[in-house]
Amino acid sequence: MKYDLPDELIVECEGAVRTVVLNRPGELNAVNERLHWGLANVWRQLAMDAEAKVVIVTGAGRAFSAGGDLDWITSFLEDPIARDESVREGAQIVEEMLRFPLPVIAAVNGAAVGLGCSVAVLSDVVLMSERGSLADPHVAVGLVAGDGGAALWPLLTPIMRSREFLFTGDRIDAVTAVQLGLASRVVPADELLGEARVLAGRLAGQPVEALRGTKRVVNMYLSQALAGPLQAGFAAEVVSMQSAEHRERLLALRQRTSSR
User: Fold this and answer.
1) Whole-angstrom Cα distance, residue 225 to residue 159?
2) Angle between helices 149-156 and 159-168 in degrees, nearest 10
3) What would the 3-class secondary structure string for 127-190 be?
4) What is the pLDDT of residues 179-235, one digit of tens each?
5) Contact criterion met (CB below 8 Å) for 130 and 73
């Protein structure tokens, strides 16, 4: 099957396994407009691939994804149409991953931040390199954690712990992520993709309808529990995107980053 995706998102095919690679290694796979569109549209294409049975998602280079590309996000300050489209696509990413029929293994090879973190924890199995980490720093830049964090984390880990990490945006190392229930297990960095492929091979050998049906039932709980919080989260994020404090913090962050 031929995939219609931007160069920023690659699908590698090996037998029944498809490996989705976030492909902006020079920018730590920060999500720009093209990569965001790709993440919103890849899942339906994967579901239409008759030969695919399992999906691995990972990042090129040393990061899974450093979150949103600052140049792209800063453009929303003056372009509400692009801002609203990004929110619509953000909701599409979450919804498509929740309804996607095949098992998804996240191979978190480095930092997974913001939307990158959401993509990781929305996967069915999360294998983390010992160098990997999770973080959702929306609040630190004046935004509501609307693209999955505030709605999803309390379903996976104790609410008390969710609050602390969402309120502060602090980095969660791989061992702590497993302890919290945000990841499945920690793998040595040089064995991460190999372990993901071994697991993908095992899942590809499972009876197809039994595996798909089991995932569908499990994800019913998530979809039902997330329906209200996700809608409220994205609406609240749009409001926070228009705040003076967000503008101030985002511009300050961009200035610090560009001066390094």
Assistant:
1) 14
2) 150
3) EEECCCEEECCCHHHCCCCCCCHHHHHHHHCCHHHHHHHHHHCCCEEHHHHHHHCCCCEEECHH
4) 999 999 999 999 999 999 999 999 999 999 999 999 999 999 888 988 888 889 999
5) no
Looking at the DSSP bridge assignments, the partners of residue 14 are 17
DSSP per-residue letters across 202-229: HHHTS-HHHHHHHHHHHHHHHHHHHHHH
Spatial CA neighbour of 86 closest among 38, 33, 130:
33
159-175 confidence digits (pLDDT tens): 999 999 999 999 999 99
Whether 159 contacts 116, CB under 8 Å: no
Strand order in the sheet with 104-108: 9-14, 17-22, 54-59, 104-108, 125-129, 185-187
CA distance 93 to 114: 13
